[in-house]
Amino acid sequence: MNNRPVSVEVASAWSSADEVLDASLRAVDAVQGRLSRPPQLVLLLGTLLDLAQLEQAATLIDDALASPTIIGATADALIAGEGTLSQTRSVGMLAIAGDGVRAHPFTQEDLRESGEDFPATIDRMSEAIGAADDTRATIMLASSRGLAIQSMLPRLNAARGVGRRFPILAGIVDPGSNDVAMLAPAGPQRGGIVGMTLSGDLAIDAITSQGAAPIGPELIVTDAKHHLVRSLSGRPALQVMQSLGVRAGACLLGRLIDENRPTRGRGDFLMRTIVGVDPSSGSIALDEPLRPGQTVRFHRHDPPTARGDLEMLLDAQKLHGPAKGAIVFAGCRRGIPEGPLIDRAFAPPSPGTSRSKGGAEITPHPRGLPILGISCSAEVGPIRGVSYLHHSSAVVGLIREPSEQDESG
After folding, report:
1. Cis amide linkage into residue 370, ω under 30° from 0
2. Read out DSSP for 162-207?
3. DSSP assignment of 89-135, as one string?
């Protein structure tokens, strides 16, 4: 039996109130009561707030929690273990603490200064994000305003370094009434990308639930130019889609990730969004360019499929042991309760001895798993070790105690 002391702690809390500082005080008090040491990182999220109000909350947190690094975002909805919070002014925070945990903050300006000359920029970008041999994850918040994060992802994946497969996770918010900011220690710096790379004595496992079921056969792209797919297996692409009884807004086109893989199953296709159709030419337009010769397959996305896919991935993660907490970025149109599903997956079983013969409970139910995240317009998460941009997916970072393999490097 492993009796080593706990090396990482995670606490989350949320509070709603008309006054932001009142809500922040309640959230800070709750988090302080659940940690035995100051945190290295605080993820600060809010709904129906502007960044100025979030900055007020960050100042309070900075004073109360011994100056952690704080990254924050405002969003349309918060995801917590109790459910999804929207249509109410609220503040949520998730804190990670550990004596051997390091947090390296960065902003879009840091990434921009590393340059765009791929591959020469890779070493500079690796330094900018703080990649190291014991890095466990890079977590980002981003605003879609003027942000080409999809084009940046190949460099970010490569910047992890040879042999390093730590996940890159991100939640992207719409720029209308929402934004992101680096709030501390070098803040506030608003907009673009704000990020944090976590290294040291913790483990972070990531899952990406695309939540889509295949419909129809596999197809070959026979004519495409940039984002426009003209024909699939020799037939007009729009005609093929219509023959399956689906329309553009109700289906996705999955691109096979590895053409050399002999068998295909869930996770082998990367879902791409159909952003438009051209009836005159029979073409469909995607959010990613395709080229002739690639294998694709139409998929359907609906809440029951999304729920079943996430539950299956969480069941697989339970085989790796308990989680200490979870960070969640989920598409705003998924229509399922991601927070409660994650909490339920890692809830300890209720032993029969927890109830007396008379039926009165004698052991209180333990506090749920610390969970916090946001509903997003887009998400970044890994599939088979490489992080991609997704829409309507659920990206979950599960925070754990470090394994013996992590500690041995």
Report:
1. no
2. TT----EEEEEE-TTT--EEEEESS--EESSEEEEEEEES-EEEEE
3. -EEEEEEEE-TTEEEEEEEHHHHHHT-S-TTTTHHHHHHHHT--TTE
**Chain mean pLDDT for the chain:** 89
- CA 255, 258, 259, 263 torsion: positive or negative? negative
User: Above 70 in pLDDT, residue 84?
Assistant: yes
Task: Give the chain's domains with CATH numbers.
Answer: 1-210+302-348+364-409 (no CATH), 212-301 (2.40.30)
Helix (H) or strand (E) holding 42: strand 41-47
Cis peptide before 185 (omega within 30 of 0): yes
The Cα 247–Cα 253 span in angstroms is: 11
Which residues, other chains included, contact 242 with Cβ-Cβ below 8 Å and sequence gap of 6+? none
Strand locations in 250-393 (E): 251-256, 269-278, 283-286, 295-301, 325-331, 371-376, 378-383, 386-390
Q: What is the pLDDT of residue 362?
A: 39
Give the pLDDT mean for 388-398: 95
CB-based contact 178:172 (threshold 8 Å): no
CB distance 212 to 299 below 8 Å = yes
- Residue length, the chain? 409
Residue with tokens 């952003």: 275
pTM, full prediction: 0.91
Give just the sign of the alpha carbon dihedral 44, 45, 48, 50: positive
Q: Which of 72, 69, 67 is nearest to 102 (CA)?
A: 69
Distance CA 250, CA 19 (A): 40
